[in-house]
C-alpha cells in the first residue's frame, strides 16, 4: 500500500527536475542591485499590431539596428508559451549614466525595408522591451493626413529613456519618442536613418518592493473598483433571489410532496403514485454512454481543482503584473499534477456504474479535454508558423510539453485510475431500480434539453458578465487585471448559482416524471460555457478592434477550448449538486 505514494513522490520529483532543466522553475540570480556604470540588462522582446495582441513578431523582424553582440535570453516554458522572444537590445543603459542623443548606427533602408516599416506603421505596430525586468512600450512610428487628404508615414528614429532609481536599484522606466526626429517612409525609395537614443536618470523615494504597483494601479482605480463591486452586488442579488426561490418555492413544494406521499401511504396503499415519487424505480437507472459520462465528470473535477489551485497562487501574489509566463507555467504544471484526480474520479464513478472496460474509460478521460486542445493547438501553431509569429512554439518547447505529458500526466492519470478502480465504492441509491424503465410522458417543448439549457445558463452568466469584460480586455488586450480577490468571489458565486439552478431544473424534470436527469443536469450546468462563447462573438465584433485571420483564429480557437473547459467543470458541479439533491429527497420517502 506504500508503493503508490512513493511513485507519486518520484513523479513529482521528476516533474521538478524536468522543469528545472528546461527553465519552468526559475530563480532570478540577479538581486537587481547595481553600482555606478554597471550595465543594466535591456532586452527587446517583440513587435506587432496594437489591436492584435496574439499577432506578435520578433523585434528584429523589422530592420532596426542590430547590436554588436546579439544574444537571445534563455526563457522559461511559460515565457515561450506567452510568445516572448527576448534578445539583447541595441541600446546601452548604464546605471546612473546620462546620455544625450547617443548614436547607434546609420541604417540605409532599401525600398523593401521602407515598405516593411510603412506597413508596420499603418497597422499601429508597437514594440515591447524589458529593462531590469520592467516592461516598456512604444510605437515605432505614426501616420497622419495631409491637407491634400493623403497619408504620410513617419518612422521614429530617436527614443528617450527616463529611468527612476532609489539608491542602487532601478524603480521605474519610461520611454518616449522624439516628435521632431522623424523619417518620412511614405515613398518606396532608399532612405538613410540615424538611429539615436537619450537616457535620463532621476532619483525617487519609491521603495524597490513597490515598483510593480505602477502597473496594477489601473485596475484598482476608484471608478474601476466601483464597477467591480457593482458586479459583485449584482451577482449577490442573483444568488439571494435564487436562494430565496429555492427556499420558499421549492422547499414548500417538497414539504407538500412529503406530506402528500406520507398520507397516501397511510390511507391508500394501492393508490396510483404521481409526480417524482412515481419514478423512484427509474431515477437511479444508470445513464446512457456511462463511460463518456464518467470521463466528463473526471475531466470536470480536474479542471475545477486546477482552477482552485490557480486562484490560490493568484491570491498569494504569484501572478504579479508582468511576471512573464508565470500563469502559463502554472497551468501546465498544475494540470499535469492534477491528472490523477481526473483518473481517480472517472474510474471510481465508472466502476460504481458497473462499467467493465475501465482502461478504455481511462483513455477517454485523458483525451476528452486534451484531445480537442491538442487539435486546436496544432492548427493554430501551423497558422503562427505561416505568419512567422512568436506565438509559434519552437520544436524544443513542444518536446518539453510532450515529455511532461508522457512522464507526469499520463502516469498520474493511470495511477489515479487504478486507485479509483480498487476503491470498490458502491453507488449509493436510496431506491431500487426496476428491471424495465417507465415510459416518459409527452412533455411540452419548453421542457426539452435546449430550452432548459438556455434557462440554466442565463442566470450564472448574468452573474459574471460584467467581470468578463475586464478579463477579456486583459487576456485579449493590453489591460492589466490584478483584483484576484474579487474574481474569486465572482467564481464562488458562479459555482453556487450553477448548483442552485441545476437543482431547481432537476426537480421540475422529475416532477414531470422524466427520469433521464443524469445527462440533463450535466449539460444544463455546463451551458454557461456556451453563453460565454456567445459573449466572445459580441466582444470580438462589438468591443475590440482585432482583425486578420491569425488573430481571429487564435481568439475563437483558444476561447472555444476555454469555454469547453468551463462546460466540463460547471457540468460536473451541476450534476454533483443534482445527485446530492435527488438522493436527499428519495431518502426522505418510503420507496418499495
UniProtKB/TrEMBL annotation:
Example of a GO biological process term: protein localization to membrane
Pfam short name (any one): EMP70
Origin superkingdom: Eukaryota
Family annotation (SUPFAM superfamilies): MFS general substrate transporter
Alphabetic keyword roster: Endosome, Golgi apparatus, Membrane, Signal, Transmembrane, Transmembrane helix
InterPro entries assigned to the protein according to its UniProt record, in alphabetical order: EMP70, MFS_trans_sf
GO cellular component: endosome membrane; Golgi membrane
KW Membrane (keyword) present: yes
Broad class of the protein's primary localization: membrane
Subcellular location: Endosome membrane; Golgi apparatus membrane
UniProt topology in membrane: Multi-pass membrane protein
TM annotation in the entry: 227-250, 292-320, 326-350, 362-387, 393-415, 453-472, 484-505, 517-541, 553-582
Signal sequence segment: 1-27
Family: Belongs to the major facilitator superfamily. Phosphate:H(+) symporter (TC 2.A.1.9) family. Belongs to the nonaspanin (TM9SF) (TC 9.A.2) family.
Stated name of the protein: Transmembrane 9 superfamily member
Organism expressing this protein natively: Lactuca virosa
Amino acid at each position: 500500500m506504500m508503493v503508490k505514494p512513493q511513485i507519486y513522490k518520484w513523479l513529482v520529483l521528476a516533474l521538478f527536475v524536468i522543469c528545472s532543466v528546461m527553465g519552468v522553475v526559475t530563480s532570478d540570480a540577479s538581486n537587481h542591485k547595481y553600482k555606478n556604470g554597471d550595465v543594466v540588462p535591456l532586452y527587446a522582446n517583440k513587435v506587432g499590431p496594437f489591436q492584435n495582441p496574439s499577432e506578435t513578431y520578433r523585434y528584429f523582424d523589422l530592420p532596426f539596428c542590430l547590436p554588436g553582440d546579439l544574444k537571445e535570453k534563455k526563457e522559461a516554458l511559460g515565457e515561450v508559451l506567452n510568445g516572448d522572444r527576448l534578445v539583447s537590445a541595441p541600446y546601452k543603459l548604464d546605471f546612473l549614466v546620462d546620455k544625450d542623443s547617443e548614436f547607434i548606427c546609420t541604417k540605409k533602408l532599401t525600398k523593401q525595408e521602407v515598405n516593411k516599416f510603412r506597413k508596420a506603421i499603418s497597422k499601429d505596430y508597437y514594440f515591447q522591451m524589458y529593462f531590469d525586468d520592467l516592461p516598456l512600450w512604444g510605437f515605432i512610428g505614426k501616420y497622419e493626413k495631409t491637407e491634400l487628404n493623403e497619408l504620410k508615414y513617419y518612422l521614429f528614429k530617436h527614443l528617450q529613456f527616463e529611468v527612476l532609481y532609489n539608491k542602487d536599484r532601478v524603480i521605474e522606466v519610461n520611454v518616449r519618442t522624439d516628435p521632431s526626429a522623424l523619417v518620412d517612409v511614405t515613398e518606396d525609395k532608399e532612405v538613410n536613418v540615424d538611429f539615436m537614443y537619450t537616457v535620463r536618470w532621476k532619483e525617487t523615494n519609491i521603495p524597490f518592493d513597490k515598483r510593480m504597483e505602477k502597473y496594477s494601479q489601473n485596475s484598482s482605480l476608484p471608478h474601476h473598483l466601483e464597477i467591480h463591486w457593482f458586479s459583485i452586488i449584482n451577482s449577490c442579488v442573483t444568488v439571494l433571489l435564487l436562494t430565496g426561490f429555492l427556499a420558499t418555492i421549492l422547499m414548500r413544494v417538497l414539504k407538500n410532496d412529503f406530506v402528500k406521499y406520507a398520507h397516501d401511504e397511510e390511507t391508500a396503499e394501492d393508490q396510483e403514485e404521481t409526480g417524482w415519487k412515481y419514478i423512484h424505480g427509474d431515477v437511479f437507472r444508470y445513464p446512457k454512454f456511462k463511460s463518456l459520462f464518467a470521463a466528463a465528470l473526471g475531466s470536470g473535477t480536474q479542471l475545477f481543482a486546477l482552477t482552485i489551485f490557480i486562484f490560490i497562487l493568484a491570491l498569494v501574489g504569484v501572478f504579479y503584473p508582468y511576471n512573464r509566463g508565470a500563469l502559463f507555467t502554472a497551468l501546465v504544471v498544475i494540470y499535469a499534477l492534477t491528472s490523477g484526480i481526473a483518473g481517480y474520479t472517472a474510474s471510481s464513478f465508472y466502476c460504481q456504474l458497473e462499467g467493465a472496460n475501465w482502461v478504455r474509460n481511462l483513455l477517454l478521460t485523458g483525451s476528452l479535454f486534451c484531445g480537442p486542445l491538442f487539435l486546436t493547438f496544432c492548427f493554430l501553431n501551423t497558422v503562427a508558423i505561416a505568419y512567422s509569429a512568436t506565438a509559434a512554439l519552437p520544436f524544443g518547447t513542444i518536446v518539453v510539453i510532450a515529455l511532461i505529458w508522457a512522464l507526469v500526466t499520463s502516469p498520474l492519470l493511470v495511477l489515479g485510475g487504478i486507485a479509483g478502480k480498487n476503491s470498490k465504492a458502491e453507488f449509493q441509491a436510496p431506491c431500487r431500480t426496476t428491471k424495465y424503465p417507465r415510459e416518459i410522458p409527452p412533455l411540452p417543448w419548453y421542457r426539452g434539453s435546449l430550452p432548459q439549457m438556455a434557462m440554466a445558463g442565463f442566470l450564472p452568466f448574468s452573474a459574471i458578465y460584467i467581470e468578463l469584460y475586464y478579463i477579456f480586455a486583459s487576456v485579449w488586450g493590453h489591460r492589466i487585471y490584478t483584483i484576484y480577490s474579487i474574481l474569486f468571489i465572482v467564481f464562488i458565486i458562479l459555482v453556487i448559482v450553477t448548483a442552485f439552478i441545476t437543482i431547481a431544473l432537476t426537480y421540475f424534470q422529475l416532477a414531470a416524471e422524466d427520469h433521464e436527469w443524469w445527462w440533463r443536469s450535466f449539460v444544463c450546468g455546463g451551458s454557461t460555457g456556451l453563453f460565454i462563447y456567445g459573449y466572445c462573438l459580441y466582444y470580438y465584433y462589438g468591443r475590440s478592434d482585432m482583425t486578420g485571420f491569425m488573430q481571429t483564429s487564435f481568439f475563437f480557437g483558444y476561447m472555444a477550448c476555454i469555454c469547453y473547459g468551463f462546460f466540463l467543470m460547471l457540468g460536473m458541479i451541476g450534476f454533483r449538486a443534482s445527485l446530492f439533491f435527488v438522493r436527499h429527497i428519495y431518502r426522505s420517502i418510503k420507496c418499495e
